[in-house]
Specification:
Layout lengths: L1 E5 L3 E6 L4 E7 L20 E2 L10 E4 L2 E4 L12 E6 L2 E7 L2 H6 L4 E10 L2 E10 L5 E3 L1 E3 L2 E3 L7 E5 L5 E7 L2 E9 L5 E3 L10 E3 L6 E6 L2 E7 L5 E5 L6 E8 L18 E3 L4 E10 L1
Antiparallel strand pairs: 1-2, 2-3, 4-12, 5-6, 7-8, 8-9, 9-10, 10-24, 11-23, 12-22, 13-22, 14-17, 14-19, 15-16, 18-21, 19-20, 20-24, 21-22
């Protein structure tokens, strides 16, 4: 099942499976979301919850018990319920079940609201802790943007001038190794060689927005004020780029497995909720 929202500038389509946006078009019918060709990568914009990235040995420990949780969690593979719909917005809900508690022993509700305003798509996550105790979680976005021109036609423009320190993955875990990515006039030209060692992973950035430039012309901007961590990723020769705001990231190679000690984990107090928002603006 899918839901469509629109305003005078944009039309967005969301799949209820994973509450995943799979289309964002402007008035000229240009598509900005990757088509999901499985030859390269069969997703469009999965929601990462209740973890981002990979756990060491795909498991974590909590209260003397062991739980197995696969990469990026389970939300992207579950059917969300549409709980509110207007012409330019749609809100979806995912509530914990007996099945989810076997791999993540917490009662929760995850709400995702998509709202079109002008040339901007706002995405709001609301995580609700229904337990009488603290709930650890991570959440992240994984939107893939279609880049129909040659990859080298594109560049990333960061909001601020900064030192870009990207941490390298080893067997899908964050290692101690890192590299510094060169920036000129706040820009990084896109080449596939940037991603030879998988995703670029930034634990901390001064910038809170990144603009994709197409032949030096602004194409779209991702604004992520509420997200301290960021991933940028593509696959070799693939005509897309993912810009991924995160609250959390993969385990490090030194992880103890204790979910409460996990680097980057969020700890939400009992009966509390947390909201975080990012946006995609068509320029």
């Amino acid at each position: 099942m899918t839901t469509t929202i629109s305003n005078s500038n944009l039309t967005a389509k969301i799949n209820h499976l994973g509450a995943e946006i799979f289309s964002l078009k402007n008035r000229e019918n240009r598509e900005y979301i990757w088509e999901g060709d499985p030859t390269f990568w069969g997703k469009h914009s999965p929601v990462l919850f209740p973890i981002v990235g990979t756990l060491k040995n795909n498991l974590f420990h909590y209260r003397q018990s062991e739980y197995h949780l696969s990469r990026h969690g389970f939300a992207r593979e579950m059917e969300f319920r549409l709980i509110e719909k207007m012409e330019n917005s749609a809100t979806f809900s995912l509530i914990s079940t007996v099945k989810t508690k076997k791999v993540y022993p917490f009662d929760f509700e995850l709400q995702i609201c998509y709202l079109l305003e002008g040339n901007k798509l706002n995405i709001d996550y609301k995580i609700i802790n229904k337990n009488d105790f603290m709930m650890p979680f991570s959440i992240g976005a994984h939107p893939a943007f279609a880049l129909p021109k040659p990859f080298e036609s594109y560049a990333l423009e960061f909001e601020n001038k900064e030192i870009l320190t990207s941490y390298e993955l080893k067997n899908d875990l964050l290692s101690d190794n890192f590299s510094t990515i060169e920036m000129t006039d706040n820009q990084v030209p896109l080449t596939y060689s940037l991603f030879e060692k998988d995703a670029l992973i930034f634990k901390k950035l001064q910038s809170k927005s990144i603009t994709i430039l197409e032949n030096q012309n602004p194409l779209l901007r991702v604004q992520f004020d509420d997200f301290p961590n960021l991933g940028i990723w593509t696959k070799s020769n693939a005509p897309f780029l993912c810009i991924e705001p995160w609250l959390g990231y993969s385990d490090t190679v030194h992880s103890s497995g204790n979910i409460l000690e996990k680097e980057g984990i969020q700890l939400l107090d009992e009966k509390k909720s947390l909201e975080c928002n990012f946006s995609i603006e068509i320029l």
